Amino acid sequence: MIELIRATSTDRRILARLFQVEHGSCNNTGVEYRGLRGIEIPILPPVLYKSLLLPTQLKTCQSPRQLFDSICALFREHVMLSENQCMLLTYWSVASWFSDVMPFIPCLAITGPAFVADLLFRVLRCVCRRPLLLAGMNPAILRALPLEELMPTLLIREPQLSKRMALLLEASSQVGYLVASGRDVRQFFCAKSIYLGEQAQQSTLPRHSIHIRVNGNGLTPIRSLPANAQDWQNELLCFRLLVHADVASSKFSSRVSAGILCCGPGAGCTLCPRP
Fold first, then answer.
1. Residue 268 domain-assigned?
2. What is the pTM of this model?
3. Domain of 85: which CATH number?
4. What is the spatial distance between Cα 193 and Cα 213, in angstroms, rounded to a whole number?
């Protein structure tokens, strides 16, 4: 598989690197690809090139159950959330690493105090694939990003979401819908989370979205941001490489009324580890 990585934590160049998966383990072959169709590095605005969080190497992956439990604990430690909310965020975050083989990724809609939502976004940034923090959501922003080539995870702060943009979010949660972008027609499908403000109307929420309401008040303890974002990125890349073929071959059926994508009972998808 070909993946985008940073050369090192100090050398911030982005490389397209070949990884080999064999007998339940994955290795960095050291082979760098340049200019080949479909795997070239997307042209990125300079600020995006500098800020994009990417893996730098492979880190030994825990078992799926251990990995999911540790990500759930990360949310529990840094944000005041219920156990059910932590689990939903964990599954959604891991799903962002497989958006290239999934037909549907529900939008994650967040409401509540802005400072808590910002903290949640920064925790999500540690564990989502190719995360981008965006201040606002409009067609100009989407046109400026190579979404189809990069397949990032968008973490959007937009308390004044228009009905038109809500409909665009809804449609672009599924593969195949095209959007006119200037003279081009592009696909905006990728994982997206959006903060809608402290009190968002139900009608504002994108249909079939997962709604997470965060809570906080003056007594909420200040939690420091996770310091090991790079470790999470490196381990989740390893997990992606190991189970990508299994996820790609899973028979998904979308229970869109609940905003859930499930491989169904007995499907045995590694993306959804069960006890």
1. no
2. 0.84
3. 3.40.50.300
4. 13
